[in-house]
Specification:
five-stranded mixed β-sheet; 29% strand; Spore Coat Polysaccharide Biosynthesis Protein SpsA, Chain A; 60s Ribosomal Protein L30, Chain: A; 12 helices
Length: 380
């Protein structure tokens, strides 16, 4: 069975607060919508994903999900779903899962349950039982208890046989806006199965929801990773060098394709290593002439951006410079300040140390300078 996913992301999310629509806000260093899309992109049963977005959000969507397919959404949820169904119709799948972009914690287990629920029904909806007592009320006063028998909380993704759901939406009057896809399906007489939902599959609606989601990530995220970097450059008499982003004019230069800042190169590799994203040579090959003489802070900023896009956050950086000359002590605090600025870290989380090899080896003979770096990152 060919299954597609339709992600509804055209809303403004004003109840969540902030100037950025909630689906593009960062959660654990990663846009909410990027987490949502990844849940479906990583699922082996999903062959295509189409997202309905507000046309004004095209740049935000491209930054959060490069190369992902999108279609202009409508002013209501129902119109946005209809737009996704129309986009899928030319190469129609057998089934489609409709999901809210603001539910970034959807699990593979819920997706599996919804797909399984389609075996003998037109649609399947993940639900949760109501555990709290219900009250009717008005003007801040309770007026009567409400019977919760037979009531459930509906979640997404809601899955449907594509042709059946498309016909149900095509039958909606223009401008009609239903609460969700289950309501549209039931209005058309479709048979829906209820499957087990997941309490963690929360929808981000209010500011407090983001606080709860952040706390959840802190408890269940990927934990802490440590990356190590090492770099060496030859020393020779010259007009000066840049080391850990600081200019040093003491009659010595570092030789390399870029500005040969060994400290920043080692730290770039450490960050890439902690995130499992390769090494500096893969991203900035020395054979590429565009990096000739390039300032190495560009490499470091790029590595940091890749880490954050992958849901990670740098929490500490430690660099050790190994050389006889130049003496690092007079420049140490300037280096820490420069690194803290590039990395957007408090200076207390940036360390720069120096040592010699007691006259041994190429560093002891003054032929070159080496740098080691350790990057500590938290992964969401």
């Amino acid at each position: 069975m060919k299954i597609a996913a339709a992600i509804v992301a055209a809303g403004r999310g004003s109840r969540a607060g902030g100037e950025t629509p909630k689906q593009y806000r960062l959660l654990g260093g990663r846009p909410v919508i990027a987490r949502t899309l990844a849940a479906f992109a990583d699922h082996p049963a999903i062959s295509r994903i189409v997202t309905a977005i507000h046309p004004d959000d095209a740049a935000l969507f491209a930054a959060a999900a490069p190369d992902a397919e999108w279609t202009p959404g409508g002013v209501s949820r129902s119109e946005s779903v209809r737009a996704c169904l129309n986009a899928l119709a030319a190469d129609a799948p057998d089934a489609v899962l409709i999901h809210d972009a603001a539910r970034p914690f959807v699990s593979a287990a819920v997706i599996n349950a919804v797909i399984a629920g389609l075996a003998d029904a037109d649609g399947a909806v993940p639900v949760l039982p109501l555990s709290d007592a219900l009250l009717r009320g008005a003007d801040g006063r309770a007026t009567a208890p409400a019977d919760r028998t037979g009531l459930h909380r509906a979640q997404t993704p809601q899955g449907f046989r594509f042709a059946a759901l498309k016909a149900a939406y095509d039958a909606l009057p223009p401008g009609a806006d239903m609460a969700d896809d289950a309501a549209v399906a039931l209005a058309s007489g479709l048979k829906l199965a209820m499957v087990a939902g997941d309490a963690d599959n929360m929808k981000l609606t209010f500011p407090d929801d983001f606080a709860r989601a952040g706390a959840r990530l802190a408890q269940t995220g990927g934990g802490v990773a440590v990356g190590f970097g090492f770099d060496v450059h030859r020393l020779e008499p010259g007009p000066g060098m840049t080391l850990c982003g600081v200019r040093i004019d003491e009659g010595l230069s570092l030789v390399g394709h870029s500005d040969a800042d060994a400290g920043l190169h080692a730290l770039t590799d450490a960050i890439l290593g902690a995130a499992g994203l390769g090494d500096i040579g893969q991203h900035f090959p020395p054979s590429d002439p565009q990096w000739k003489g390039a300032a190495s802070d560009r490499f470091l900023v790029h590595a940091l951006s890749l880490l954050e896009s992958a849901g990670g956050r740098l929490s500490h950086a430690d660099i050790t410079l190994i050389c006889e000359r130049p003496k690092i002590g007079p420049y140490r605090e300037a280096m820490r300040a420069r690194l803290a600025d590039i990395l957007r870290l408090p200076i207390a989380r940036v360390s720069v140390k120096a040592t010699t090899t007691e006259g041994l080896g190429f560093t002891g003979r003054g032929e070159g300078l080496a740098a080691q770096a350790v990057a500590t990152v938290t992964l969401a």
